[in-house]
Amino acid sequence: MAALEVQPGSPYPLGASWDGSGVNFALFSAHAERVDLCLFDRTGRRETHRIILPEYTDEVWHGFFPDVRPGQLYGYRVYGPYDPKNGHRFNHHKLLIDPYAKALSGELHWHDAHFGYRVGSPREDLSFDRRDSAFVMPKSVVIDFAPAWGRERRPNTPWSQTVIYEAHVKGFTARQPELAPHLRGTFAGFANPRTIDHLVRLGVTAVELMPVQAFFDDRYLVEKGLSNYWGYNTIAYFAPAPRYASVLGDVHEFNVMVHRLHEAGIEVILDVVYNHTAEGNHLGPTLSFRGIDNRSYYHLADDPRFYFDTTGVGNTLHFGHPRVMQMVTDSLRYWVETCHVDGFRFDLATALARERRSFDPDSSFLNALRQDPVLSRVKMIAEPWDLGENGYQLGSFPPGWAEWNGRYRDDMRSFWKGDDHMLPALARGILGSADMFDRRGRRPWASINFITAHDGFTLADLWSYNDKHNEANKENNADGHSDNRSWNCGVEGKTDDPVILGLRDRMRRSLMATLMLSEGTPMLLMGDENGRSQGGNNNAYAQDNEMNWFAWQGVSERDLAFQRFCCGLSRLRAGNPLFRQPRYLHGEPIGENGPPNVSWFRPDAAEMRPEDWHNGLGRSLGLRLAGRDGSSALILLNAHYEDLPFRLPATARGNGAGWRVLVDTGTGEIEPQRPPLAAESEIRLGHHTLMAFAAEAE
Length: 698
Fold this sequence. Notes:
Shape: elongated
Number of helices: 15
Number of strands: 31
Mean pLDDT: 96
Structural class: alpha/beta
Strand order of the largest sheet: 12-13-16-17-20-21-22-23
Number of domains: 3
CATH architecture of the largest domain: Alpha-Beta Barrel
Low-confidence stretches: none
Largest sheet: 8 strands, parallel, barrel
């Protein structure tokens, strides 16, 4: 084995950096006593060199290697105390992934050698395992990343015009019949023009991709023949998941996908998991952070053997440490500047903003992003909860942030299901949840409105199942939540009954129309538009199969009709500014003597009174929106189990103009060719039906 020349190098930048004449390696560890750089052959099976990094500056171990080139596979071995009682879990027998690795090579093969302690021994986590883990570990890869973007331009879609589509890279493309088999389930498959065409037709302006940063399948899932399909188990925050590459080791494929989506006017938002890592709790494997500097990277409990866990998966990253904060912000900037993504959705974002264990809207992390010249200009979305104390922080994030509005989801489901006392909640949600977000100059777009997401029932299942059916997860149906606010419409699961099928169609049309006509930012779940069902599974995180995959073929005519209905709703929303208000509406008059910008009506066209709002049995009402240009729109909603007579109120101008039908969820029509209806005329609004109108042009 020929010796390699090594020079002192630099502590910055962290990671492996090729400068054209060699590679600088830099690794932060405040408590290590020594760091070995391990180089491997192209197969990743044979360790060819092991060199001690020669310098230690500002808690960074570093060295420069003139003979190393891009494509080199490597890992680290970090020496230090194995002292769990004081929070240290160093074990140099374990090969570790570079936290700044831009690519990974090889798969993780589960073996007891991954663990720093002797699995099965008494007091397991206090024992010490001396087995070498390199033979079952993926290797970090040195890359030369200088993509040529040419004239690529970001769409820069304003928030007020944004329609989000939550999608899974593999799930969206695994059954795309026009793709070559090796492209299905990959970034390249997602970038295919025929795949993107579907998003364009649907009116999507942004795809929110479920985790694409490198992640691993949990051992307990692998042993049950399952996988971590969703991907909320990140281990490398700079590297795209190798499983989504059509060509092994191609780190440019992700960028090509972004470029193609941008060409179609579609932004890319990444669902990122910085709240925890794939290393799990104190009995988890030693794969990277735990072995590099456990005490720095993780938020430890009062007893340092354990972790302060607000995520429910065993650990929480320690955002109070400046180097952890640096790693996360460096990672975010990398995806924006190098990969050109347009924003992020932060999983369990409350965990990222805890200061001394309590949520703080002015936390170091949130303030760091707010002032960052790069990150402050992209879309930021919080999942505003975690599992810690006071973890539900919906509406508490600072200006510039949007938030997944779980209350909107629950309230809209409950209203259309026919629950009591839902009229006030319905009204708040349709107008963008001002009670939570209208402060500090925030706008209606801050509310990410959704009815369904990856976690929970699909839209089809919402009206097909009363209860969860998660048996396929092999957890005795004990996993997943039970508060689904769903209704099977009379039969649990599949049915051929045309009456029940018709009711289910009407229910999903009414919910989708409510979503697309509400103020705020709508988010659609992949496959809802063509009837995707998970068979009643509301926690399909481990199902890498047709339960989760998008159906490109074999879609029923009724589901294709619903898909056309969804496309029509998107066009309608895009073409009518009244459904995309730039500011919150509180019933203020338009101009000096103009009508209020918001008016609420009973079915008899009388304005809603306080006692009407407090009528627990009320399940119908009308909403009129008025614009400064004299335009007006009317939305009528009936969640009763029977049809109701509804008298149409006057248009906002009150000049005798009539109402033109925009949407009828009872029939599934969008902008039907019907004669205008006169103000104060009476219609019969079907059960579980929404109708929307625009004032007839003069």
